[in-house]
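[Q] Does anyone have a clean structure-token version of this?
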Amino acid sequence: METRTDMPWTVTRLRVFCHDGSGGNPLPLVLHAEGMQDGDMFRLARDNNSECCFVFAPTSVDEKINFHFRFFVPRHEMEMCGHATIGALWLLRESGRIDNGACIIKTLSGLVTGYVGSDIKISQPLGHVSPVGQHIDEILSVLRIQAEDLRDVPIQNATTSRTKTLIPLKTPADVNALQPDFDRIAQLCEAINSTGLYPYAPVNGSDTTFEARQFPARAGFQEDAATGVAAAALARGCIENGTIKAPDAPITIFQGRAMGSLSAIHVAIETAADGSPSGLRLSGRVMYDN
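[A] Here you go.
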């Protein structure tokens, strides 16, 4: 769906990481953002109270780059946004600006490769995992849970493009029953060098299917219906913890149920010639937001 604001740019509204024809994360998107200033992009993000994506043609010095994407939430510019990148590539294909094949995108987090085919996939680096140490009690307090609510894997920070804090709960019902102390999340995330809390649980004991929620640090809204970079971080945590039996098995993360917007995010694990994990690919369904 396309709408016009009092700005001279067309805004297209999508939903990304949809499940069974509904759900997904809303995405206001400007496909031709040339001429927009930071204030314009902040204004659109504030007016929509969500992540927004802005697509720019590469400058003359970016000869190897196909596009430059920028991502804004109401309170700041983001380095990377998974659902926005997938949604933008999908719309670029729908509008005829790109064909099937690989596409190189410049973001604040670095270069991202998009793979355009029957579905849209984007690359994510393998990244790293680190402990949260002495902050575990504070994490439990902010989520209003106890240590016995946790599974027998560690709370940890995982980073692909952005750092997310993985909190392993026992069941999806536990995840969706959470009522965090939202007023304390931003301060906690600053202390642990994270951009959001990502509680998750396996679905029916699966090693590759999870249910999760994302509580961002300073986005300007309390919860996200689908978070690609957090799903990639969870996949990285599974690799670190040795809970993925087949390194190249696709992982599915359901998110947004508690918000009434159930979404599905898919993460494939790329492997090197020796079979070791070498990177990640995010994918999911996109549709117009009518």
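[Q] Thanks! Anything notable?
[A] Helices lie at 38-48, 82-94, 136-143, 172-176, 185-191, 228-241.
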